[in-house]
Design a protein that fits this description.
The protein is mostly helical. It has a single domain (31-137), classed as Up-down Bundle (3 helical TM bundles of succinate and fumarate reductases), CATH 1.20.1300.10. The chain has 5 helices and no strands. Helix 2 packs across helix 4 (78-105). The longest helix has 32 residues, at 32-63. It is flat and about 70 Å long. The N and C termini lie far apart (81 Å).
Length: 138
């Protein structure tokens, strides 16, 4: 045995210093581009809720009048309106963020100022398009 093993040191090498992940969450300032990226993932997953409600409504309509009455009551209640309104917001945001991503993939708008303007455009555009959609559907 060598001296290091006899002294109680690990055979895998010297003990590593515990360091925070980089960038550390306590000192990291969230940026619009990172927040919009996270929001794109959240809205993509959130669209599942609206899709499940719509599919339940369609299956219930095909199943029978009792099942349809229950599903229709939920879909047309305040909860259904909220789910579908949030789904419209998520759909519009996800669509606009996808267009922004295609623009980035083409090598355009990669400077910080343009990327932030496009991020704000996605946020504002999704709200405006959601309001227009709600007005048209009502």
């Amino acid at each position: 045995m060598n001296n290091a093993t006899q002294a109680g040191a690990s055979q895998s090498g010297p003990k590593r210093v515990e360091r925070p992940l980089s960038p550390h969450l306590q000192i990291y300032r969230p940026q619009l581009t990172s927040m919009t990226s996270i929001l794109t993932r959240i809205t993509g997953n959130g669209l599942i809720v609206g899709t499940l409600l719509a599919v339940w409504w369609l299956v219930a309509a095909a199943t029978g009048p009792e099942a349809f009455a229950t599903a229709n009551a939920v879909a047309t209640s305040w909860f259904g309106d909220l789910v579908f309104a949030c789904s419209a917001l998520g759909l519009w945001y996800h669509y606009l963020a996808g267009l922004r991503h295609l623009y980035f993939d083409a090598g355009h708008g990669l400077d910080i100022a343009t990327a932030e303007k496009l991020g704000w455009a996605c946020l504002g555009g999704s709200v405006i398009l959601t309001i227009i959609t709600i007005i048209i559907v009502q």
